[in-house]
Amino acid sequence: MKALIVCTNHTDYPTKAQKTGLWLSEATHFYDELQDRNIQFDFVSPKGGPIPLDQRSVESRDTTNEKWMHNPAFQEKLANSMRPDEVNPADYQIIYFTGGHGTMWDFPNDTNLQTITRDIYEQGGMVAAVCHGVAGLLNVKLSDGTLFLKNKQVTGFSNMEEKIVRLTEEVPFLLEDELKARGAIYSKSLIPYVPHLEVDERLVTGQNPLSARKVGRKVVEEMFEK
């Protein structure tokens, strides 16, 4: 069994000097839950090649991050992510969109990633996403032309959380608003920045970085324990 982990290549905010990129724990905590089941993984990004890391996510002390950043195979894949046109969707049973603010720029309109997502889902696979990574699902359409998210229970980084990190003015859109605009049934935790999960059959979404491990755990449960 194999998982395709989607990461951003985008690093720049319009006005802020700080850089964005993958929020590291959203990849490591998720995969940490899958590795016990011997699920293999590949990284893919819109442009392929090295995955940039959001520095703030690397600076926080996190034993799971440290474990995987010292893992040569993980490092190698992080430095050499695939391009979408190199991916054969038939090889994967899981696709997972990691977050980090960069995803807001390069995920939503990547038609290759949309096609891969549709194919994995329609062949019976799981679709998962966390935090800003849920933006990767906004414009996915199924083969019959309907929006993938329409009438699905989802969560993702909330307007309130965006306000708390003071990036409302920097991002190209607010994820919560756009999910609702697509006809998704959006929900969030009452308190910002606590883990929150939504499951709608073969779609699992997490609200914020702290939800990544729960998303991984739920994906494993859905795949193996039903």
Describe the structure.
The protein is an alpha/beta fold and 226 residues long. The protein has a single domain, classed as Class I glutamine amidotransferase (GATase) domain (Rossmann fold). The protein has nine helices and eight strands. The strands form two sheets. A six-stranded mixed beta sheet has the order 2-1-3-4-8-7. A two-stranded parallel ribbon has the order 5-6. The two termini are 16 Å apart.
Count of extended strands: 8
State the low-pLDDT regions, or none.
none
Strand order within the widest beta sheet? 2-1-3-4-8-7
N-to-C order of helices and strands: EHEHHHEHHEEHHEEEH
Our estimate of the beta-strand percent is 5-15%
Reading off the top of the CATH hierarchy, the class is best stated as Alpha Beta
Counting H and I runs of at least 4 residues, what is the number of helices?
9
Mean pLDDT: 96
Brief characterization of the structure:
By secondary structure, the protein is of the alpha/beta class. It has helices at 24-35, 55-59, 63-69, 72-79, 103-106, 111-122, 159-164, 175-181, 212-224, and strands at 2-6, 40-44, 94-97, 126-130, 153-154, 185-186, 197-200, 203-206.
